[in-house]
Design goal:
Elements lengths: L24 E5 L4 H13 L2 E6 L12 H11 L2 E6 L5 H15 L4 E4 L14 H29 L3 E4 L8 H6 L1 H20 L6 E6 L7 H4 L4 H4 L7 H12 L13 E3 H7 L24
Parallel strand pairs: 1-2, 1-4, 2-3, 4-5, 5-6, 6-7
Helix pairs in contact: 1-2, 1-9, 3-4, 4-6, 9-10
Length: about 300
Amino acid sequence: MTSSADASPAFASPYQATGSLRGRTILISGGSRGIGLAIAGRAAADGANIVLLAKTGEPHPKLAGTVFTAAQQLADAGGQALPLVGDVRQDQDVARAVAAAEERFGGIDIVINNASAIDLSRTDAVDMKKYDLMQDINVRGTFLLSKLALPALRRSGAGQILTLSPPLNLDPHWAGRHLAYTMAKYGMSLTTLGLAEELKADGISVNSLWPCTLIDTAAIRNMPHGEAMVRSARGPQIMADAAHALLTGAHLQAGVVSSGNFHTDEEILAAAGVTDFRPYSMGADEHSLVPDIFL
């Protein structure tokens, strides 16, 4: 079973799904490549409806794929896809995406806040345009997409918000390493914490998911020494499988509803029955894998 639309045909997932996202409508930000596309591809394989909100409408010189090629991959995988060129920083683009999801598919069941910008510069070196970009995409974009989708999620009856952000770790180590980026990612996590509490009575579950190791993405490859870094990374399929397990409740005991948690990919998949994580390493030595930040 292939876990994402862009997975290698040789990839054999150790995750055996017990639930399905068939017929569920997912609105995801930044899902045209990488982890977002892998998550969308895994849902599409079930027959889910995917609304892709991403900025890349035309081919990018450094980044593979567009929102339209991604949508075709999702359709080929078995889902229905609605590609929308838009910027999660722009109120009108997000409102248009929510309206389009409701018009095309009749509602929204799941919001995935995947769009994120990264700059690991220390405070002296960080450019304030990059600082603003991270705050606008990571924090404001997550808050805005979640906020505007709330009426549709309430009507779903079993709405979910999943944000790709780390556990809130107040050890000063991470803030001291890259303060600007830490604030931006923790802002996403605070949105999870606050919305989970705020939406308890609405039956909407709100959680975060974060990888235990580096994940091979264009963002990593484009960083200094990125090509070397990805040789110590897992493929995005592990996040696709973990998101699927989380969204279908495969990690939970029957009848349990979980919200307000900061999960890791390994934790979720272990709870769903995975015991061998080696297939996700895509040929890398498990002992050489580099832990992701914030853990």
